[in-house]
Amino acid sequence: MKTDVLIIGGGLSGLAAAVKLSQKGVKKITLVEASGKLGGRAYSFVHKETGDVIDNGQHVLVGAYKNTLEYLDIIGTRKFLSVQKNPHINFWSKEKGFSTFEIGKGKVFSSLRFKGLSLKSKLELKKVEKFFQKFPSNENEIQKLTVDEWLNSLHQSTEAKKNFWYPIAISVMNELPEKASALLFARSLKASFFSGEEDSSILISIIGQTELYVDGAVKLLKESGVEISLNNEVISFGEQNGKISKARFQSGEEIEANYFISCVPYFALERIIENSTLEKNQFLYLKEFQSSPIISIYFWFDKEIIEQEMLGVCGKNIQWIFNRNKIFQSTNTNHYCVSIVISAAYHLIEKPKEAIEKICFDDLREIFPNINSAKLNHSLIIKEKRATFSASPTLEAYRPNSKTKTENLFLAGDWINTGLPATIEGAIESGFKISKIF
Ligand SMILES: Cc1cc2nc3c(=O)[nH]c(=O)nc-3n(C[C@H](O)[C@H](O)[C@H](O)COP(=O)(O)OP(=O)(O)OC[C@H]3O[C@@H](n4cnc5c(N)ncnc54)[C@H](O)[C@@H]3O)c2cc1C
Fold first, then answer.
1. Range of the structural domain that residue 257 is part of
2. Integer Cα distance of 161 and 148 in angstroms
3. For residue 352, how far is its CA from the centre of ligand 1 (angstroms)?
């Protein structure tokens, strides 16, 4: 078989590349995906016992995700995002109980009303605000720092770190503060917290991720004549005159193409390169990448136990709690579903599911003692061991650009040089960028 453009990987970067290229009028695009579904690391499925549509992990977007919003506009599903009216974050900590942090019009730390921190810690937040007055011209000051080192350099108190910065940083970066890149965290904060009110709004899908990101894209791509092939894993490239001539598949099939767009994670590209005769030195950077895990836990109760839509938890194993009945469009009123996310879950990922469930349930009970009068009907634990790449300060120098030394091979994906941590926005932006090459 022969095509013009072969897109390898049907995650959000691959779908975004296909959508933009087909919009541009590029003919003969083929998208191949190793698994039986599209969407990659952002997907949903029906939970058998309850019939609920659930995600492989609750994803949260912010108004600053401009490429993502454009993608959803193109495929017609932006209307399924619920947009927070007055940008705010709810927190819980053992010391202060429940509190709400209001993010107001780019003056993020001007509110002293926040009850989650002592006055002294709140005043110290101003030092971070001051840092952002010069950002990004002071980017080089924090290039080599971890999030923790950066917060220390800005004299943030232990209380401010534990009860404010860490829950935000760990979820934005999917990495521990002592390992995560300060620069990428600062860029993410600048784009959301320190921009307009619209950019700092939290956006949550009211439908499953597959419906949000995949179904509309598939319809559009099929109408444009894009070939989509599932359960079709690329295992190696064939080479001719220094260019890639074909992709070989697990099934024994081969597809020839003029252009090859890799939209697979770093570890999958490494496997393909190892099996190919391509000059390997140009891909040595792949060895520098490591992954960071995320655990998602779903609990179904017979009654509502949580009022808030979303809650950041400080100083516990569980980090963020989502009230699925409040968030989701079609909710089952026979039961109440709570989802919990633990990012950078290194300390839990190898534990048996029963042990993780107990740890999370105990945390939840401490925050919501009314859980004692509710019946737990079902639970589900989803471990994503390689949820994202680990965004450390040293890794930035190794993240590759879209263009490679092999003339007709291009890269997209959340892990390439997007200037962002591993996010949906990075994945979609990298896919969109591919269209500029054509
Ligand atoms: C639990 C969880 C929670 C997250 N939460 C958030 C969040 O709140 N906000 C946010 O912005 N981001 C979040 N992310 C990150 C976000 O999901 C990813 O950054 C994004 O989906 C990555 O898209 P991608 O296209 O780069 O890669 P992928 O989604 O990994 O897509 C790559 C695709 O390539 C396929 N593939 C691999 N090898 C081959 C091969 N040899 N041949 C053919 N196909 C192949 C794979 O099967 C996969 O479908 C989260 C991730 C996880 C796992």
1. 5-47+209-288+392-437
2. 8
3. 24
